[in-house]
Structure to design on (171 residues):
């Protein structure tokens, strides 16, 4: 089985577009989206540590210890803020330079590399927050913000990656 990703359902902060919303429980829509998923759960499963991720896993009948290596991006002092509460120059740096760290946490390059390394060679199911799924689908850290992920969805990342986050050929 190739790597399959279940994206945690929506939370109220997701709806409000607030940084760090994956740490909150699912909202009603998020729970409905997860209830509609038709997924065969394999024996090899890993689950991220965020509240929304753990709730998503429980709703699917998955009861495993959270895997901290699948944690969402550390946005440090931006956690809980709406983008309108962040200085424009900081947002611009964050969205255009994958090596910037205007919030004091992880860069996108560090985050994508960490997530790719954590899943390299893993064949099974992961239940993760949207930013983690985004890191797995992006072909490189520079393309991270071009990837759109829908909460409460199932996907298969298109291309395996090197541990540094760069794409590798499959053959």
């Amino acid at each position: 089985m190739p790597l399959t990703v279940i994206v945690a359902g929506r939370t109220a902060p997701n709806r409000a577009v607030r940084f760090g919303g994956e740490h909150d429980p699912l909202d009603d829509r998020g729970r409905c989206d997860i209830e509609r998923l038709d997924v065969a759960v394999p024996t090899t499963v890993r689950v991220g540590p965020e509240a929304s991720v753990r709730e998503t896993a429980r709703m699917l009948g998955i009861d495993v210890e959270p895997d901290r290596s699948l944690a969402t991006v550390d946005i440090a002092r931006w956690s809980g803020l709406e983008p309108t509460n962040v200085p424009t120059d900081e947002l611009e740096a964050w969205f255009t330079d994958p090596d910037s760290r205007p919030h004091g946490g992880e860069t996108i390059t560090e985050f994508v590399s960490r997530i790719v390394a954590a899943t390299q060679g893993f064949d099974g199911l992961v239940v993760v927050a949207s930013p983690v799924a985004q890191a797995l689908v992006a072909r490189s850290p520079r393309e991270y913000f071009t990837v759109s992920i829908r909460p409460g969805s199932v996907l298969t990342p298109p291309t395996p990656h090197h541990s540094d986050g760069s794409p590798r050929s499959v053959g």
Observations:
- The chain has one domain: 4-155.
- Residues 4-155 form a domain with the Rossmann fold fold (CATH 3.40.50.1240).
- The radius of gyration is 15 Å.
